[in-house]
Amino acid sequence: MHKVRAVVSLKKGDVSVTTINVPSPGPGEALVKVLTCGVCQTDEHYVEGGVGDNYPYLLGHESAGIVEEIGEGVTNVEVGDKVILNWRAVCGECRACKKGQLQYCFNTHNATQKMTLEDGTELEAALGIGSFAEKTLVAAGQCTKIEAELEDDQYAAVGLLGCGVTAGIGAALNTGEVKRGESVAVIGCGGVGSAAIAGAKLGGATKVIAVDVDEQKLERARSLGATHTVNSKKKDAVEAIRELTDGFGADLVIDAVGVADTFKQAFEARDLAGRVVLVGVPAPGATLEVPLDELFGHGGSIKSSWYGDTLPTRDFPMFVQHYQLGNLDLDAFVTERIALEDVESAFETMKTGKVLRSVVEF
């Protein structure tokens, strides 16, 4: 048993640093010494009850770390391996996996044993990871080995591939299937939207249009690959996207906000036979009315993107390689480096929209 410091949410609205117990790994599990962990909005959803009320929660999930121990039967990683943690540890047995669509695995693995508070109360780990902790216990399949040689200060950037950055890049490359020479519009330039812009650039889009209401975010979007920006407070987003695409609309429009208004903009701003991807997470109970005749007459496709339709074992190594080659600026997503005790204040900073990611370094 390992006693470590961690950030937990004991009840709705609560964020505190405390000592927790982390078991040694059993069959199929790995104990990971955490190096970095990004502060993601999903963690705040856990704190505010947006995911459920199964408190207490062990927060954190966007991480890089070092495998410290492995359990019986683990073959994909060894002690000492540097890894990125992921929440899609494919089962290999569900109907998606059996169809060869491992990126949609419906039964992803988590550690069997539970981490606990010092009094024995079981913790629910955020996304099955719980890595706002000096050490965490995960299913071995949640570890993707980093083969690349990296400098110590680069793990903060690479660890962000564990969630939000990958969700955005994957929305463009995997779900949206962006092709060389296409036009892409991204509505909402927070962390995921900014990553979608980087993904569109990586995929070879020659016109990348960033849409937001915040000039600071739009300026940041340009640095990540946007060729044009639209402040939708000042100009109608649909009209602007059409003007920038010769009146036709974009080949691919990504809604990184996830509310009815932005989805409607995405739907109306695409070209004939264009694609719409929803990667922004809607609030529970959110609804939308779509005219069926326009849906039929416009053609193309509308897709939602879960985790950027990412398969970590396939995609993480490729993204790291692009990072090393200078094609993907992961460092730009690390706005500030903080201590474990700063996580609560980082949630407040995140709400201002002035940061892409605050990253805890251990």
UniProtKB/TrEMBL annotation:
Gene Ontology molecular functions: mycothiol-dependent formaldehyde dehydrogenase activity; zinc ion binding
Keyword DNA damage: no
SUPFAM superfamilies per record: GroES-like, NAD(P)-binding Rossmann-fold domains
UniProt KW Metal-binding keyword: yes
Enzyme class: oxidoreductase
Keywords in alphabetical order: Metal-binding, Oxidoreductase, Zinc
Cofactor section: Zn(2+)
Every Enoyl reductase (ER) domain range: 13-360
EC assignment: 1.1.1.306
Family recorded in the similarity comment: Belongs to the zinc-containing alcohol dehydrogenase family.
Name of the molecule in the record: S-(Hydroxymethyl)mycothiol dehydrogenase
Organism the protein comes from: Rothia terrae
Lineage, uppermost ranks: Bacteria, Bacillati, Actinomycetota, Actinomycetes, Micrococcales
